[in-house]
Amino acid sequence: MKLYGIPNCNTVKKARDWFTQHDIKVDFHDFKKHGLSAEIAQNWLAQLEWERLVNRSGLTWRGLDEKRKQQVCDADQALALMLEKTSVIKRPLLEHEGKLLHIGFDAAAYSQLFKL
Fold first, then answer.
1. Are strands 93-96 and 99-103 parallel, antiparallel or unpaired?
2. Which of 6, 15, 55, 60 fits as disulfide partner to 87, beta carbons 3.0 to 4.6 Å?
3. Closest Cα to residue 33, out of 8, 55, 15, 61?
4. Domains of the chain: which residue ranges?
5. Is 101 within 8 Å of 76 (Cβ atoms)?
6. 9 belongs to the catalytic site
7. pLDDT digits over 55-98, tens only?
8. What's 2-113's CATH class?
9. DSSP labels for the chain?
10. Sheet containing 2-5: order of strands
11. Residue 42 near residue 68, CB atoms below 8 Å
């Protein structure tokens, strides 16, 4: 089980705290320290449409110029942006053996996922 995100993100903090409180071991992949491989991002894009992976309401997206935003209109452009600016990815992402289990944090959804 792996959780992807950045440590100073409040939603990531909530997810990590939830796992700690429920004594569930997850490996944490810090985008800022470890980046993101094209292979992993392509795998996610094969499972979900790019619109669900790119956080278009976050600060990183809002900080892009309009031309760059308009360029992100398909999975290929989303991949390029996700690799360039990992902070634009919705987070946290919970993955197990390459399969995306959940995006974002929702205590009820996590409880259901882990049958708690």
1. antiparallel
2. 60
3. 8
4. 2-113
5. no
6. yes
7. 999 999 999 999 999 999 999 999 999 999 999 999 999 999 99
8. alpha beta
9. -EEEE-TT-HHHHHHHHHHHHTT---EEEEHHHH---HHHHHHHHHHS-HHHHB-TTSHHHHTS-HHHHHH--SHHHHHHHHHH-GGGB-S-EEEETTEEEEES--HHHHHHHTT-
10. 27-30, 2-5, 93-96, 99-103
11. no
CA–CA distance, 102 with 77 (Å, rounded to integer) = 23
List, for residues 4-58, the tens digit of each pLDDT value.
999 999 999 999 999 999 999 999 999 999 999 999 999 999 999 999 999 999 9
Q: Which of 2, 9, 26, 61 is catalytic?
A: 9
